[in-house]
Amino acid sequence: MAKICRKLPKQVTKKYELWKALVFRHGPEIIRSFPGFGDEKLTGKRAGQRSSRLSLQYRVIYKVERSEVTVYVLGITPHDY
């Protein structure tokens, strides 16, 4: 993930770090209470995954395994799904 973050615009990296800190401290459910992240369930081939907005273009795609309370960040991508 560090290699991906080096290529991102600074404001996207800062918002990702905020996103990561919130998830680490309070769990992934806290993200849904911040409208700026625009967190949503994905459908289709990404069913079971979630997306949070880091900018107008970039999203963090992640999956939550409830039994382990583990968040798997699957990627930070331009909005192309």
- In the predicted model, the low-confidence regions spanning at least 5 consecutive residues are none
How many strand segments? 4
User: For the report, how would you describe the main beta sheet?
Assistant: 4 strands, antiparallel
- The structural domain count equals 1
Number of helices: 2
Order of helices and strands: HHEEEE
Radius of gyration: 12 Å
Question: Beta-strand percentage?
Answer: 25-35%
Name the shape in a single word: globular
The CATH homologous superfamily is called RelE-like
User: Widest sheet: strand order?
Assistant: 1-2-3-4
Distance between the terminal alpha carbons, to the nearest Å?
A: 20 Å
Task: Give the CATH architecture.
Answer: 2-Layer Sandwich
Structural class: alpha+beta
Give a brief rundown of this model.
This protein has 81 residues and is an alpha+beta fold.
What does this structure look like?
The protein is an alpha+beta fold and 81 residues long. The protein has one domain: 2-Layer Sandwich (YaeB-like fold). Helices cover 28% and strands 28% of the residues. It is built from two helices and four strands. Strands 1-2-3-4 form a four-stranded antiparallel sheet, with helices on one face. The longest helix has 17 residues. It starts with a helix and ends with a strand. The relative contact order is 0.18. The model has no long low-confidence stretch (mean pLDDT 83).
What is this structure's SSE topology?
Elements: H1 2-7, H2 10-26, E1 40-41, E2 50-53, E3 58-65, E4 70-78
Antiparallel strand pairs: 1-2, 2-3, 3-4
List keywords for this structure.
alpha+beta, single chain, 81 residues, YaeB-like fold, 4-stranded antiparallel beta sheet
